[in-house]
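Batch manifest line 364
LIGAND: 2-acetamido-2-deoxy-beta-D-glucopyranose
JOB: complex structure
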Amino acid sequence: MLNRFIGLSAAIVGRSSRISGFAFSPLLKAGNQNQNRTMSAGKAFKVLVTHPEVPQEGIDLLKENCEIIQVQSVPTNRAELLEKIRGVDGVLWGGHQPLNAEALDAAGPQLKSISTMSAGIDYVDVPEVKRRKIPLGHTPTVLNTAVADLAVGLLIAASRRFHEGRKKIDNDQWENYHLNWLLGQDIRDSTVGFYGFGGIGQAIAKRLSGFDIDKVLYTTRRRVHKEIEEEFNAKKVDFDTLLAESDFIVIASPLTKDTQGVFNATAFNKMKQTAVLINIARGKIVNQDDLYEALKSNRIFSAGLDVTDPEPLSPTDKLLTLDNAVVLPHIGSATKRTRADMSTIAAHNVLRGLAGEPMLSPAY
Ligand SMILES: *[C@@H]1O[C@H](CO)[C@@H](O)[C@H](O)[C@H]1NC(C)=O
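JOB STATUS: finished
ARTIFACT:
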């Protein structure tokens, strides 16, 4: 069913129906057999894996046909990466190191396939990769459910004041003799607004439909399919309407020059005073200083953030002093199964690129 959301062109079947939204087409197997035929040694391709903690599932797939070179340093030592990338045919780019002209130059002109192991690719100089005509894959979709689960967790935590409540316990400040102590916002009958309504946004909406919300509004460039709108009682609106009418606003869009900083003081001033803001996308979509002011002055009710600007966030950042900000260290896709699936998809992307076939999830 997720296939419908992500518009994967190939009807994909095979070993990994257990990876939601993905399984692998016969095309790939054919590709591998071709590789085997043309590579009598079976290891004609060199592939760099840029991080030692890339889950084994993907590496095992690559190993069938490729010699694996792996960056060992954690955190990544750029010099080691630039040295080991020299002369490789493919790269499984684990981690968020800049993937730019410097790295591509270091690799050399034989490089023919790259896949990241992430959905967002803001650390990749995509025009530069494109200019060199190197196929680039990424791993959206497989992380949708893990990120959506976390978003719902943040939404509840921020609306029901988990962080503030925990601090009350720590500081021995129970005031449960008050009848209105730590009252939060209801999810039932609410309007949930999505800034960005792709696979992740829709996975969040699907989960929230179990909480008896009233309706969904969304702001995107393009309208989603009518049947998706009907499924979630969702309506496309302009940004100002989204801000004015939503009880919860969930940021689920990519970071681009158009989305950078759009959640600023002007935006917060158009939101309901009871509104809860959730960001599971990228920190820079929010002007964090303006958010701090909006939360501090109770211009909006609370925020739940899995992403910040910068990351890592300093432990002395003023955002962390607020009772009404629930802040997590970018753990949206951090489940064991999701990461294993991401490495599998990334490996398939790399193999397809090497075989001269379309990638499972091309980034451009
Ligand atoms: C907020 O961003 C919008 C553009 O998205 C801009 O027009 C507006 O001036 C900004 N407001 C502030 C306070 O920076």
